[in-house]
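Entry 14. Structure prediction run on the chain below.
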Amino acid sequence: MRVTRFRVAREALRIEAAQLDTRGIRLLDPLGYVEFMSLVQSATGLLTDSGGVQEETSYLGVPCFTLRDNTERPITVTSGTNVLLGLDPARISTIPALLAMRDRSEPAAIPGWDGAAAERLVDVLAGGPLPSRTELTARLQSPVRVNERSRWSA
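Output returned:
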């Protein structure tokens, strides 16, 4: 498995000082949003502690593994697009097995994540009613498929 890791200045110094073997790990300097999302879109899975990345991976259908005990985006966990690994770095070693077990049958469908938020906002601002979760779920369309990644389970 090929691993890409974004490096930060102090991390690069620690890696160098410890003389760690980084073969098999591609270390990148921080990227802009478009370049970063291009990598995310083509990823097999993503390890993060970022709530925003949990949303992006869920929308794109890329399995997300969060090295935290909790999330501000619980819908990503309940919809099966994100796994909370907790704070133990040893749990990272479980990711390949979790990826192998994932269900690739259909993409996650998260209510309200259908790309139509702007239209709903305009309707509300024009005096229309705010749609309920039930209404959003009833008219839910699958997110745009950027690639063949799909919903999986752990």
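Residues 14 and 32 are 24 Å apart (CA to CA).
Filed with the rest of this week's runs.
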